[in-house]
Amino acid sequence: MLSISPGSKPTVVLDCDGLLSDFLGAAELVLHHMLREYCPMRNAPEWSPWQKYIPGDSAQAEFADMLGQRGVCAGMKPLVRAEQMTQLREIADVVVVTAPWPNSETWMSERSEWLYKHYQIDKIVHTADKEYVWANFFVDDKPENVRAWNARWGTGGYLWDTPQNQHATDLPRLLTWGALLALVRGPE
Ligand SMILES: [Mg+2]
């Protein structure tokens, strides 16, 4: 783990979907459009909860295609309030590292605009290989991402608690934004 040089802020890498952006809410809208029924997913315990509603490769390919269409990424609801992000940015350099949706022509540009619009964040890395981005603290809701990051950098990777990742009991877990702020502030 690299130490923080005096006077500089720690670098915090944040995931976007599931932490800052309501990905599953957008997925619910897409499924509603496909099936004409409400398919609740936010409290589902499994990682890709849409799959149980649309078994079969062709339906899942259609879902993936619709999710990647113009406006879906841009229309996601923010999960963290702007003032909460301001509190973090006062004590840290915040970088968002986010995996683009496969085969979408608009996802990356919409995500960058979304992050600036809601949080004035302009340090953004679009990649699924998140472990190549260094930070003092890395926060993601996908267990595989946190494990890969900690395997490369030692410690500093934390799992953002969601109903979809309760099975991962091997990782340090952050349950609230307040817990993240306390972690970054360190011992008083
Ligand atoms: Mg995520």
Q: What structural keywords apply?
A:
single chain; 188 residues; alpha/beta; Rossmann fold; 6-stranded parallel sheet; 36% helix; binds magnesium ion
Give a written overview of the molecule.
With 188 residues, the chain is an alpha/beta fold. It has 2 domains: 11-22 and 77-185, 3-Layer(aba) Sandwich (Rossmann fold), CATH 3.40.50.1000; 23-67, no CATH class. 36% of the residues lie in helices and 12% in strands. The protein has 6 helices and 6 strands, in the order E-H-H-H-E-H-E-E-H-E-E-H. The chain has a 6-stranded parallel β-sheet with strand order 3-2-1-4-5-6, sandwiched between helices. Helix 3 packs parallel to helix 6 (177-185). It is globular, with a radius of gyration of 17 Å. The two termini are 21 Å apart. 29% of the residues are buried. The site of magnesium ion has 7 residues, from loops.
Bound molecules: magnesium ion
Q: Assign the structural class, choosing from mainly alpha, mainly beta, alpha/beta, alpha+beta, or little secondary structure.
A: alpha/beta
The structural domain count equals 2
CATH superfamily of the largest domain: HAD superfamily/HAD-like
Strand order of the largest sheet: 3-2-1-4-5-6
Query: Termini separation (Å)?
Result: 21 Å
Could you say which overall geometry the principal axes of the C-alpha atoms support?
A: globular
Number of helices: 6
Average pLDDT, all residues: 96
Quickly name the level 1 CATH class of the largest domain: Alpha Beta
**Tally of strands:** 6
- Please give the CATH architecture of the largest domain: 3-Layer(aba) Sandwich
Rg measurement, Å: 17 Å
